[in-house]
Amino acid sequence: MAAVPHRREGCREPPCRVVVAVVTVVATVGVLAAGPVIQNRDDARLAAQDDENLDPAQYPGPRAFLEDAPVPEDVEVRPDPTNEEHMLPRTQPDGCYARFEDTDLIRTHDFNGSDEPCAYGDVNSARTMYLAGGSHSEHFLPALDVVGRQQGIKIVPVLKMGCVLGMSLPKLDGEDYPECDEWDGKAQQFIFDNPPTDGVFMTVTRPTTIEGDGPDQTPTEYVDQVKKFSDAGIHTWGVRDTPWAMQAPGVQGNGRLRVAEDLGSGQTADCGTDEHSSMAEVNPALVALSGLDVSELDVTAALCRDGRCPAVIGNVLVYRDGQH
After folding, report:
1. Residue 261: pLDDT band by 50, 70, 90 thresholds?
2. What is the three-class DSSP state of 116?
3. How far is Cα 263 from Cα 17, in angstroms, rounded to an integer?
4. End-to-end alpha-carbon separation of the chain, Å?
5. What is the H or E stretch that residue 294 is in?
6. Phi, psi of 318 (to 5 degrees)
7. Are 295 and 28 in contact (CB under 8 A)?
8. Cα dihedral angle (45, 129, 93, 203), rounded to 10 degrees?
């Protein structure tokens, strides 16, 4: 990995894993927005995603990779790695996602217990984009919230934990997940009955195994789902999933906890994941979805460099756990 001035880019020993918090705000805004908004890797957007209003000169985040921005030493990692709550997308505290036991779409706050609609970005806009799938779609919400407010698009979550559109999945422990199948049918019916003006944003790759082992792939079911959207005149914003950090086959690491452990011990050992063990050499969705109405998005360059995907980039923690 090419050296940068600040070496605190990980935790200890085994691969940790990635997450999309502040990092993808910078990377994704530039992909979706146009014109002057291409200058997305700037002070305002980085600061907008942290209540502390971090100084971008001290916390360049992904600009350390994307622009070779200098990374000051002796700066505390932010967000605080001892607590994951401030790294959760707003759908979590708002209760705007379907839990594992839920089968209905969650359309309003507090798991449909409130009258307040689940909406982000420009909540008053007539333009709509659906953020659809599971937690690996959900963790892009902070970036889409910024895009939506800037571009005048309402971001509507259509989310269920551990579930995706168009593909039957087991739970992580291998148990059947019939709640996912039931939710999927309702989610697709909602999308086709209420097509969004600005498309569906969803992941279009996933690891080889349900546990998270790589490399990433684009399953046939994902291709079929995007084709269904294309045939219905619905555009897909297809984002490549982020690298999963595995300590061993079938065993995930936890980047946030390892960073906290590392900093607490005063060590600064590397704790990243190997990019090539998690990610295919070429984004598999590029070929799999060729010819369909899809915009391919890939933020890997903001997360990985020289074959490593560290837990801290530009003094910013980019891991929430072992896969987000």
Report:
1. low
2. coil
3. 17
4. 22
5. strand 294-297
6. -120, 10
7. no
8. -90
Residues linked to residue 120 through DSSP beta bridges, in sequence order: 155
Amino acid identity, position 64: A
Find, among 140, 178, 179, the residue nearest to 157 by Cα. Answer: 140
Q: Which two tokens stand for residue 225?
A: 């789902």
β-pairing, 128-133 vs 200-203, is parallel
* Extents of the domains making up the chain: 22-317
Please give the Cα distance from 104 to 107 (Å, whole number): 9
Q: How many CB atoms lie within 10 A of CB 33?
A: 16
DSSP states of 283-309 as a string?
Answer: -HHHHHTTTSSEEEE--HHHH-BTTEE
* pLDDT tens-digit series, residues 22-80: 444 444 444 454 433 333 434 444 444 444 578 889 999 899 999 999 999 888 888 77
The pair of three-digit structure tokens given for residue 19, joined into one six-digit string:
């997450």
User: Shortest CA distance to 213 belongs to which of 178, 250, 184, 238?
Assistant: 250
Residue 306's CB is within 10 A of a number of other CB atoms, namely: 9
pLDDT at 40 (0 to 100): 40
Rounded to 5°, angle at Cα 44 from 32 and 133 = 40
Is residue 134 within 8 Å of residue 105, measured between CB atoms? no
